[in-house]
Amino acid sequence: MSGDKPHLNGSDPAEKGIDGSEDVEMKEGSQNPKKALKLNKDKDGDDEMTVVVPPAKGSNSPSAPEKPTEADLKNGAVNGDAANESEAQVDPQEKVILEIKANLPLLERGVIQFDPRFSLRVLRSIPSTRKQLSAYVVATVVTDTYPIPTATAISLLTAVKDDPSFPTQKVEDWHSKKDTSLQKNSQKEILPEIDIYLSILVQVYLYDKKSIDAGAQFSSALVDHLRTLNRRTLDPLSARVYFYYALFFEELAPLPPSPAAAVISIRKNLLDALRTATLRKDQDIQAAVTTLLLRNYLSTSHITQADLLISRTKFPAAAANNQFARYLYYLGRIRAIQLSYTEAHEHLTGATRKSPTAYKASGFYQASTKLLVVVELLLGDIPDRAIFRQPSLEQALRPYLQLVEAVSSGDIIAFQNLVQRYNSTFRKDDTYTLILRLRQNVIRMGIRMMSLSYARISLRDMCLRLGLDSEESAEYMVAKAIRDGVIEASLDHERGFMKSKEVGDIYATREPGDVFHERIQACLALHDESVKAMRFPMNQHRLELKNAQEARDRERELAKEIVDGDMDDDDAPGGDFEGL
Amino acid sequence: MSSNAPSLDSILHTLQQYLSHGDSSQSQPQLQKAKLALLQHNALIPSPQTPTPTLAAARSILEAGALLSIRSRDPESFIRYYSQLQPFYDFPGLQQTPSPNRSKITGLYLLLLLSQGDYAGFHTLLESLIVAEGSNGASSVEDDQFIKYPIELERSLMEGSYDQVWRKTSGRHVPGEEFALFSDILINTIRLEIASCAARSYPSLPIASAKNLLFLDSEGAVTEFAREQGWSLEEGRIYFPGLGDAKKAEEGDQKEVVSHMIEYARELEMIV
């Protein structure tokens, strides 16, 4: 899938437009546009493979500098971030350091208030800090955060110490002050959430550096460490750790799909994590690890295992949108391979709808649309042409557009040429085997075209036009097409021709009803999903209950007062009269 | 146990000899002996502790077992052998000496899936084969005669060019004697397919043409087959019974519409 990079970063004007606007907005972030572009590429590269970034990312990262301040303002806690921003323009590195540090209180607050939204916000800020991440940044943050060198801090530093920008002097100072600050450390303990957050930053840094071996090692140790922790506030962060863990191993030699691929070695760990997560009802990790496992199995084309995993596990309904999109994509792929095209179509439609369509994160969108197009063709439908006009898809889907054209015109020769010409592209997209299955659809479409245009046509002519070997083949094929309901016709064996039946009024059939039903179903599903997607704050219902209780009390009091009042009223006039 | 070491090779040797002579009565007990020996050598499942030559011998014994069970028409036992062989094929220690029989076994398994109508399994396996081929730059799957055969058969079956299937399953197109054992099953499958197609697409058919269409040997066989299918024979022509299920389908339609409406009503109620 990474092969789409050239398409993505190719000549498209849209790309330049986006980069341009980004440069304007992020003047302080990227003096070096070339570097920014390169980092974008990397990011795209990993978006290609899987949706790394939440859908909001496309719009999020350009405005990232404002983001934390905005968020903090909302929470009534301005950490002097606005002031920092002007300083930050001087040195982007310092700015990132401040940003990272600003995230740490958020994590703490997340732990105290037991609200995963804070950790999610921190995770969302990773893409923007990513561009400036360096050994210097990591080391500075670590030395400033940890009052004394703990085991975690040291492991974080060792992971980045091979870089030239590593501030050796500073770290040595930090090591030496170990004794003096020993008494102070009892005041404040570093939360595991912060450990893990910084570890994720190191993972990202190593991945961008392409130090795959070091990254794999670091991640393995990290995952082992994670398994000893049991904190619900850690879940969103751990899910991200597992993601990078799998990513590192995917790029370790021997690469999949060799039977000895490195990815196979992490299956046990991932399965363990899945089991633990399921037992702890930890939906973040459960969702993340399930998709990782599916991806892992599919990369070595262990489709049966993937299928078994799906049938034995339950994907958490409350999973994040992008995890869900990925899950649906893999599910769609598996079903397509197993020839359950209708099911595959359903899943893939879900995946494409849920996927981020922003230009920068379009890799997943492209991959799922490609598969969707092929599955639609296999179902005998012709995909909507508008799909191919979207700017994020136009380049990448060009071979598929031609494929659709060949299939819809029933041109078997053009189809075969296409398959040959784009052999490597289709193989890279993992759609090759599916496309090979399309041959019969092309023939059917050809038969259909002929049946529509001729009232009567000899089998010999059909055979020539379809490019078949023999008249007999043509006869069998037409017979099969008639049986499967592709065409309305009958055959005359003795005289060797096909006679089409009059095409009836389509509105007299059940076709419109079916289409209508499908749409109603989609609307209802949308409604259900929107209800499910609404956020219900924790304990809010109790507040409401309390309010309701209070209201009821008030009402009762009121009623009582009214009753009393009535009596008063009854009394009062009497009294008044008395008075009068 | 080490005293058995030479016997494994010798057992394999005699087994292969029996196999090549097609002597199934002799090879069956020999295979039992071989499996017992495998168990003693702890070579039923490949592990790094077992020496590579032993594993290679074990692989050959299992392959022989697989071929033997195909010959004795025992698909279940073949599937068992096939599953046992998979870890051997993927075992890193044996990658240097790939088995010459691997593609044959895989091809037979594909054909078995095809004859059982398990298209999902067929394509699942095919997918993994093609993916593996694309990566290693190894010989193309479609160039291998053993694997090419089931792939082409499947393609013809799916397209509906049954004459191609007929031609491929009979005579010299079949790549090996084990493959020929499936021909009968496949021809039977396509005959039924053709019959159901013919019933829909021809108003009537002369018996002589039906004989050709259905790949039957004589007109008597056609009459027999037609009776099985419930077709009526008049004046040397076959008349297919009218499509009585059209009406039934309509009834089903109405029921479906009603059930849809009730569903909408329920959903609306939930929303409002």
Helix percentage range of chain A = 55-70%
For the biggest β-sheet of chain A, the strand order reads 1-3-2
Structural class of chain B: mainly alpha
Q: So what's the CATH class of the domain at 457-528 in chain A?
A: Mainly Alpha
Our estimate of the beta-strand percent of chain B is: under 5%
The overall average pLDDT of chain B, rounded, is: 78
Rg over alpha carbons of chain B? 26 Å
* Shape descriptor of chain A: flat
Secondary structure blueprint with pairings:
The complex is a heterodimer of chains A (580) and B (272).
Chain A: H1 5-8, H2 13-25, H3 33-49, H4 57-60, H5 66-74, H6 81-88, H7 92-113, H8 116-124, H9 126-130, H10 135-145, H11 151-160, H12 168-176, H13 192-209, H14 212-227, H15 235-250, H16 262-265, H17 267-279, H18 283-299, H19 303-312, H20 321-337, H21 341-354, H22 362-378, H23 398-409, H24 412-421, H25 423-428, H26 432-436, H27 439-453, E1 456-458, H28 459-466, H29 471-483, E2 489-492, E3 497-500, H30 511-533, H31 540-579
Helix pairs in contact in A: 3-22, 6-7, 7-8, 7-10, 8-15, 10-11, 11-13, 13-14, 13-15, 14-15, 15-18, 17-18, 18-19, 18-20, 20-21, 20-22, 21-22, 23-24, 23-27, 28-29
Chain B: H1 5-21, H2 24-40, H3 52-71, H4 75-90, H5 102-115, H6 119-136, H7 145-159, H8 162-169, H9 177-180, H10 183-201, E1 204-206, H11 207-213, H12 219-229, E2 232-234, E3 237-239, H13 245-271
Antiparallel strand pairs in B: 1-3, 2-3
Please provide a written account of the structure.
Chain B: Keywords: Proteasome. The complex is a heterodimer of chains A (580) and B (272). By secondary structure, chain A is mostly helical. Chain A has a domain at 457-528: Arc Repressor Mutant, subunit A (Orthogonal Bundle), CATH 1.10.10. Chain A is built from 31 helices and three strands. Chain A has helices at residues 5-8, 13-25, 33-49, 57-60, 66-74, 81-88, 92-113, 116-124, 126-130, 135-145, 151-160, 168-176, 192-209, 212-227, 235-250, 262-265, 267-279, 283-299, 303-312, 321-337, 341-354, 362-378, 398-409, 412-421, 423-428, 432-436, 439-453, 459-466, 471-483, 511-533, 540-579, and strands at 456-458, 489-492, 497-500. In chain A, helix 7 runs antiparallel to helix 8 (116-124), helix 7 crosses helix 10 (135-145) and helix 15 (235-250) runs parallel beside helix 18. Chain B has 13 helices and three strands. Chain B has 272 residues and is mainly α. Chain B has a three-stranded antiparallel beta sheet with strand order 1-3-2. Chain B has helices spanning 5-21, 24-40, 52-71, 75-90, 102-115, 119-136, 145-159, 162-169, 177-180, 183-201, 207-213, 219-229, 245-271; strands spanning 204-206, 232-234, 237-239. At the A-B interface, helix 27, helix 29, strand 2 and helix 30 of A face helix 6, helix 7, helix 8, helix 10 and helix 13 of B.
